[in-house]
Amino acid sequence: MILSAGSELGPWTVDHVDPDKMKVFAEVLADPNPIHLDPQAVIDAGLGDRVINQGPASFGYVLNMLYEAAPHAAIRDLNVRLTANVFGGDRITVAGTIESVDEIEGERRASCRVWVDVEGGRRALQGTATLVLPVE
Amino acid sequence: MTAPGFESLPGRALPEGTFTITEEDDRRVHAVVGGQPRDGGLAHPLWAYIAAQRGIGIGVADICALASFDVSDGPMLGSSHLEYHRPIMLGVPYRVTGQVLGIERKRGSIGTFDVLEFREDLLCTDGELVASSTSTYILPRRDA
What is the pTM of this model? Predict the structure, then answer.
């Protein structure tokens, strides 16, 4: 597949954000924040009644989506903002689009928009990414 | 506007540390966020964030404490900018350096809050930059 301006990236989905994986990720991140581990902590914080997925997990989903959409490209950067929580049990869709492809310093750089949407309407993450595309 | 009382914080260096990504850790990251493990000793690119957070010589709670914020009061990760200069490899000892970039006082739907921005760099032991992670934490200031 030739990637060019207007190309769609993804979708890449997680059918069920798994609370058990949040426990593993909490260890990997060395992040003991209880809102990722204990629904009661989420209730006490007034943020809902299900555990909240770690924000960096969504960065990982986007990086996976980019890697699968452009397996021969190099990811140069990912610049994102977290805009809503992802809760345990949510179904999410990760996608993007290439806005432009430009020759810069001898490289073909694709400027992308990327996002993570939660089924039901919330956009949990939005931002941009830059890919260095292989020479055709 | 720099948050009042923290005018000396921007530019402050964070304590250096080191971090080596093991194959087992990388397997766990793939088990959590998915994706196929890379060949050739390449780590998942999310390690630009994780290794920076794990490797810098100061924990999340102590970063919050620099801004006189108790981590139990609920900091929120607001944004992240990951920049890649070289592939991130398994089994390579990386040096991690960092600094506070700024702290701004704002008002919004959650009331008054500070946006603490800091950057962490992952470097080879020869000093070559591998990746950078710039993050913002949202720190609600219920008493401001």
Answer: 0.96
